[in-house]
């Protein structure tokens, strides 16, 4: 029997990512987002959604500069990631508070946060207002990964140990181990 839980925003699994941008004075803003996903292969692109009240300082900075970086925090940085999502850059220099360092991206004028092991440099290619949120599509113009998470020349999911987030219970999760190969596992049903 199914239980009807009415309507709620949800996605499984959802990442907890950190987006960053420079404000008009050149200070680095960063905030945590669960609303983030890949959305185009050609060009490679990601979509993020930020509450459009402009109470999010990072949104204001992204809309001004039209560039941002997006990092995939590892479970080991869950505390810092949570802090970036519960404090505003209007009230504190968040990256300084957690002793994180950053430098300007190679292809975009947006802060790359050094402590996060995988980061994307993105240029805004599309903006849409959808309900309560501003959806921003960013073309991925560079991908950076720590050597520590590279295996066979690729980012290794288990080495990265990316932080997952559940919006129903407001909880962080570890995603777990590989179970099989995609695009192969279902082949037996094609026969
Ligand atoms: C786990 C988590 C996920 C979040 N996801 C989003 C999101 O997808 N969109 C959004 O607008 N805010 C999201 N937030 C809230 C912002 O990160 C938060 O309002 C932050 O303080 C904004 O900082 P800023 O003003 O420095 O930009 C999330 C917070 C947490 C802790």
Walk me through this protein's architecture.
With 191 residues, this protein is mostly beta strands. The protein has one domain: Electron Transport, Fmn-binding Protein, Chain A (Pnp Oxidase, Chain A). 13% of the residues lie in helices and 39% in strands. It has helices at residues 57-65, 78-84, 94-97, 157-160; strands at residues 14-15, 17-22, 28-33, 36-40, 45-51, 67-71, 102-104, 111-113, 118-130, 133-145, 150-151, 154-155, 163-166, 171-174. The strands form four sheets. Strands 3-2-6-9-10-5-4 form a seven-stranded antiparallel sheet. The protein has a three-stranded antiparallel sheet with strand order 1-13-14, with no helix packed on it. A hairpin with a 4-residue loop joins strand 13 and strand 14. It is globular and about 60 Å long. The structure holds flavin mononucleotide (FMN). Flavin mononucleotide binds next to strand 3, strand 5 and helix 1.
Summarize the structure.
This protein is mainly beta. 13% of the residues lie in helices and 39% in strands. The mean pLDDT is 97.
